[in-house]
Amino acid sequence: MITLDDFATFPDFPVPGVLFYDISPILADPARFRDACEQLTPSEPVDVVVGVDARGFIFAPVVAQSLEVGMAMVRKKGKMPGELLEADATIEYGASELVLDPVGVEGKRVLVIDDVLATGGTAVAVADMLARAGATSVQFAFLMELPALQGRAKLADYPVHAVVEA
Is 149 helix (H, G, I), strand (E, B) or coil? Predict the structure, then answer.
């Protein structure tokens, strides 16, 4: 079982006042990585797993493969071609423009995987794009949640699972 002790921490990264939780120790240990992926896997059926740039990309394909479903990506703007949906995300220490290719999302039950739920800005932007793409349901799974930043409150309309809280 993944615990807070499985993360390395770095104060004042990437900006002063932020405590960065590094997932590298989990990735370096095959058993811990497997455990993390299993704990991110929902018990309810889904049709597609969406990985959020960048660390959601590490876990999402493994979870999608174990569920035998496809995967889609939410990327930072400028990293993906085609006709894309766009959304702005306000995050803990800045802002980000995100994009999603809506192909294959309409009518689907979607699991979104990201590494950290902090302020909820990224997740809200992803949920908005998925709604515009026609997803029938959206749920979120995070490796870590920072409850003090109240991101879960912004996701009150969605099922949210976090493996650990800090």
Answer: helix
Which one of the listed residues 32, 44, 68, 92 is annotated catalytic?
Answer: 92
Q: What's the DSSP call for residue 157?
A: T
Q: Domain 43-165 falls in which CATH fold?
A: Rossmann fold (3.40.50)
Q: pLDDT tens across 45-101, in order?
A: 999 999 999 999 999 999 999 999 999 999 999 999 999 999 998 776 667 899 999
Catalytic (active site) residue 44 = no
Q: What torsion, rounded to 10 degrees, do the Cα atoms 7, 1, 43, 152 define?
A: -40
Whole-number Å distance between alpha carbons of 113 and 44:
14
Q: Is 55 a catalytic residue?
A: yes
Q: Per the residue annotation, which of 32, 34, 38, 55 is the catalytic one?
A: 55
